[in-house]
Amino acid sequence: MPATTAAAPITIGVSLKMYFGHARTLEWAAAVADIARTHPAVQSGAVELFVIPTFPSLVPVHAVLEGTPVRLGAQDLAWADEGAFTGEVSGRELREIGVDLVEIAHAERRSLFHESDQDIAGKVHAAFRNGLRPLICIGETDRAADGDPSAAVAEVTAQLDRFVATAVADGLAGPVIAAYEPVWAIGAPQPAPDEHIVAVLAGIEQHLSTRPELAGSVVIYGGSAGPGLLTRGDGRIGGLFLGRFAHDPAAIRTILDEAELLGASA
């Protein structure tokens, strides 16, 4: 895939996980919507912005975002579309209420809820067959002692291949958002080293270029990502998946400002 240029939108997304209550989520979403309505980077299409709140807030957040280009995501989905699956949420219903994309395979889901590769592949399949864009989290568990990113590239691209395999076999695959989140950087005070991020993202992009069934996919970085990272990446980071650093909407504005400057200097 080509390097990020002014013609290639930077993808910026935020997952709220389970940090906010309902009222605060709606206040936050309204603030983000106000930013999106006026910020040149969003209005020009230089940035594609998405937000992922909790399940109970999806419908009201969808209403709050009406009239903006901000896309709405869900934090998970079931591998089944209907049936006796207490506590699960189907991709069919998510699409019905206006969800655009769905996060799958986050490290917390894998470690806390023991999601297997088979579970994840089923969820990716469910997303595709219901017209939802999969946001697939990939990342190595251990930090390489020698700092060589090649092992990370090999591990995370193998993860990606396993996760999309069922959808590919059934001819359902399409563009994904591959969110590179090294597990050792999630929740850390600082993101992974800049050059490591750049090298691994480039490796994932190169791998995706060999998978025509995933054409149109984008690669972004998560894992303690925050303001300043896009600037330091100098056009080599195609997007960010933000967590707690975006709890203050002002931080999102700062990152959008960075993206706008990068586009102007490209």
Report on this structure.
Homodimer. With 266 residues, the protein is an alpha/beta fold. The protein has a single domain, classed as TIM Barrel (Alpha-Beta Barrel). 42% of the residues lie in helices and 15% in strands. The chain contains ten helices and eight strands. It has helices at residues 22-38, 40-43, 58-64, 91-96, 107-112, 117-129, 149-169, 194-208, 229-233, 249-265; strands at residues 10-15, 47-52, 71-74, 101-104, 133-138, 177-180, 218-222, 239-242. An eight-stranded parallel beta barrel has the order 1-2-3-4-5-6-7-8, surrounded by five helices. The longest helix has 21 residues, at 149-169. The radius of gyration is 17 Å and the shape is globular.
Quick tags:
266 residues; TIM Barrel; 10 helices; 8 strands; 42% helix; globular
